[in-house]
Specification:
Pfam families: ARMT1-like_dom, Fumble. GO terms for molecular function: ATP binding; hydrolase activity; metal ion binding; pantothenate kinase activity. 41% of the residues lie in helices and 19% in strands. It is an alpha/beta fold and 731 residues long.
């Protein structure tokens, strides 16, 4: 680019992963052996890295490439943007590689499509005067068509219809270069960022002629307010005085932004488009340009169109050039996820926060994306994927909740670091790595206190996911693996007696006992401090003790009677999809008896568990072993597994929460094939922190025990209050 070099590269990262597998028990006494063995293995995953350098440090950038990224097989380096011409000879000489120049616009759009598809909180609207100045948008599953307005030296307006189909539909020679050039002539300030700094302090009304200056007030006939600009720089023709640099810079900024905003609106109307993304060096995360563009679009569209900006806007060209070079590997066939541990986040635009960081290096320093094992798609049963928001509370908006949860995660951090170190007793550097993890996550939390919008909308889910990413970064893939192994073993020993006691009850009594068992199982959550304290201090705390902790009916949210009525009066469901939560008592004594009852009614069951570990949540590979053991004790489960009436699948997630818009493609296919008509979501992370308000096309059950007193209080209950939410979609 004109002032920044953006570098995109691919690497393979060696990570430790925890694997579980059954022991071969032939002819052994298995009474006192663990249920399965846990091994930590090395796994190689793919990662994309994006880094920014200022062009003044181009030599440093090339040294970095030469030392770290060029191997004997590298013959060509892909480049795009003005710098691809300017620095071509330097790059070829220094690296000994051929520079392969790619078309700027093609790269820009490829990059734009990539981030829109893979980063859920990529897009934001800018609102300067609200508490949360960034309003992040939910990614629409269908990103096309959209208008991309790229404001560089001039303005290019491109209509993007599909992955490969786009056309330049218009533009203007009056763009960022005009602001910079005219601004330099007017103020003698040569630097773009300094010009913006002047504009942010200026008062344009000292230079611009307003409607009220012409008509003495508003122009009622045309519905124009008195404060509207009638003529940019209009006062300079009549006023006999010197104008300040700040005021002239502000007037110039308004003049150019309003012109671009009106153009963009006219093209959007002409082509019937309601999504307009703005990018280019004129924007580059600068609050003052985002504000004027937002105002202009809002004014000219009468509030019908919103100006949208991208978190990683500066990287689009580099991402696109990289994708062009990697086409044989087809990066688009995979899903990618932002790695919060290695990404620096959107810097604050408030001048008082970290003023040193808003230097010329722009707003974004580093981004890392991890390739996910399997493609992720929407749950087909979402009522409206375009309006689905997984998270219940937006902490970016809610200052009180934000303060509570950040403190909560800070206070839990020492315990998490200790647990991580203790999970690898044979490792010589476990303590050192645990301390590095603690430091890294602590720093992330401090950043989020200052800049809650650093990684998009701040939520309990993003705080949990960031913690998991940081644990993985320092090779703690599954700190709770031993805890889960032990709890699964203990719970399996109780399975038969729980089933016998359930089978001895009458039908109605049994339905209530099953629900109570599901809820009691949900108490066993090492992620909740109130529970982990009890589990640490009272090792004998078990299923019956958990039942006694539960709130008596009526519950905090209680539609149990409607659920019972539905079971009594309605036909059996065709197929139920159950999202499981914790290992041990939860899955074995809570979920499996419930699954068994559904199967007995003639309902098929898809049991979905996390693909990778998070806290003490049950993983898909653990669920396979647990199901195999249960099948050996229970003929109903055994025949259901054999006849594929009970299917165990992975969610595609490694989070304690649940995003129904990013689920394993195989799961989505199965949900459609089996005509699923009931979704059951259990647990605080999946049914309260996320999906509490999720609207589905079919019946749903959301149930959880609230194991956090602040959250219970906020919802109007006490700790161990019960949420039992049975919902039927409106016909």
């Amino acid at each position: 680019g004109g002032s920044l070099t953006k570098l995109a590269y691919y690497s393979t990262v060696q990570h430790k992963v925890a694997r579980v597998r059954s022991f071969d028990h032939s002819g052994k006494d298995i009474e006192n052996e663990p249920l399965y063995e846990i091994s930590v293995q090395e796994e190689i995953t793919a990662r994309l890295h994006f880094i920014k350098f200022e062009n003044t440090y181009i030599e440093t950038c090339l040294d970095f490439i030469k030392d770290h990224l060029v191997n004997t097989e590298t013959k060509v380096i892909k480049a795009t943007g003005g710098g691809a011409y300017k620095f071509k000879d330097l790059i070829e000489k220094k690296l000994g590689l051929k520079v392969d120049k790619e078309d700027v616009m093609t790269c820009l759009i490829k990059g734009c499509n990539f981030v829109l598809r893979n980063i859920p909180h990529e897009v934001f609207a800018y609102q300067k005067d609200s508490d949360a100045e960034f309003r992040f948008q939910t990614n629409h599953p269908n990103i096309f068509p959209y208008l991309l307005v790229n404001i560089g030296s001039g303005v290019s307006i491109v209509k993007v219809e599909t992955e490969d189909k786009f056309e330049w539909i218009g533009g203007s020679s009056i763009g960022g270069g005009t602001f910079w050039g005219l601004g330099a002539l007017l103020t003698k300030t040569k630097k773009f960022d300094e010009l913006l700094q002047l504009a942010s302090k200026g008062q344009h009304t000292n230079v611009d002629m307003l409607v009220k200056d012409v008509y003495g007030g508003a122009y009622q006939t045309l519905g124009l307010s008195g404060n509207l600009i009638a003529s940019s720089f209009g006062k300079s023709t009549t006023a006999d005085k010197e104008f300040s640099k700040e005021d002239m810079a502000k007037s110039l900024l308004h003049m150019i932004s309003n012109d671009i905003g009106q153009l963009a609106c006219l093209y959007a109307k002409l082509h019937n488009l309601d999504k307009i993304y703005f990018g280019g060096f004129f924007i580059r995360g600068h609050p003052v340009t985002m504000r004027t563009i937002t105002y202009s679009i809002n004014f000219f569209s009468k509030g019908e169109v919103q100006a949208l900006f991208l978190r990683h806007e500066g990287y689009l060209g580099a991402i696109g050039a990289f994708l062009k070079g990697a086409e044989q590997d087809n990066p688009n066939q995979y899903s990618w996820g932002e790695n919060y541990a290695g990404s620096s986040g959107l810097m604050s635009t408030s001048p008082d926060v970290y003023p040193m960081q808003r230097s010329r290096s722009g707003t974004f320093d580093m981004l890392e994306m991890d390739r996910l094992e399997r493609p992720l798609v929407n749950l087909p049963l979402l009522k409206d994927p375009s309006t689905y928001i997984p998270d219940t509370v937006d902490l970016t908006d809610d200052a009180m909740a934000r303060k509570y949860w950040l403190t909560c995660f800070e206070e839990a951090l020492d315990g998490v670091a200790k647990r991580a170190a203790a999970s690898q007793p044979d490792s010589v550097d476990a303590l050192e790595r645990a301390e590095k993890f603690r430091q890294k996550y602590w720093n992330k939390l401090q950043t989020l206190r200052q800049q809650p919008f650093a990684y998009g909308t701040l939520t309990v889910r993003s705080l949990l996911d960031t913690r998991e990413h940081c644990l993985n970064e320092f090779n703690f893939p599954d700190p709770y693996s031993k805890v889960k192994q032990k709890e699964n073993g203990i719970a399996l020993k109780c399975f038969q007696s729980v089933i016998e006691s359930l089978d001895s009850l009458g039908w109605e009594e049994r339905q209530f006992a099953l629900v109570k068992g599901l809820l009691a199982g949900n108490v066993f959550d090492w992620g909740a401090k109130a529970v982990s304290d009890v589990l640490e201090s009272e090792p004998q705390f078990g299923f019956e003790e958990a039942k006694s902790k539960l709130q008596e009916r009526p519950w905090l949210e209680d539609s149990y009677s409607q659920w019972l009525e539905r079971l009594k009066e309605g036909p059996p469901h065709k197929c139920a999809l159950i999202f499981a939560d914790n290992s041990g008592i939860d899955i074995i004594l809570g979920v499996f008896p419930f699954v068994r009852e559904l199967l007995s009614r003639g309902t098929e069951v898809i049991l979905a568990c996390n693909s990778g570990p998070a806290l003490n949540d049950v993983t898909y590979s653990e669920s396979l072993i647990v199901a195999e053991r249960i099948a050996a004790m229970d003929p109903i489960i055994q025949s259901a597994l054999r006849d594929e009436k009970l299917l165990l699948v992975q969610t595609g997630s490694s989070s304690p929460c649940l995003d129904l818009s990013r689920l394993d493609k195989g799961l989505a296919v199965l949900v459609r094939e089996r005509k699923t008509d009931l979704v059951i979501i259990e647990g605080m992370g999946r049914a309260i922190h996320t999906n509490y308000y999720a609207a589905l096309k079919c019946e749903s059950l959301k149930l959880a025990v609230i194991k956090n007193s602040w959250l219970a209080d906020r919802l109007g209950g006490k700790i161990f209050s019960v949420i039992f939410k049975y919902e039927v979609p409106c016909k």
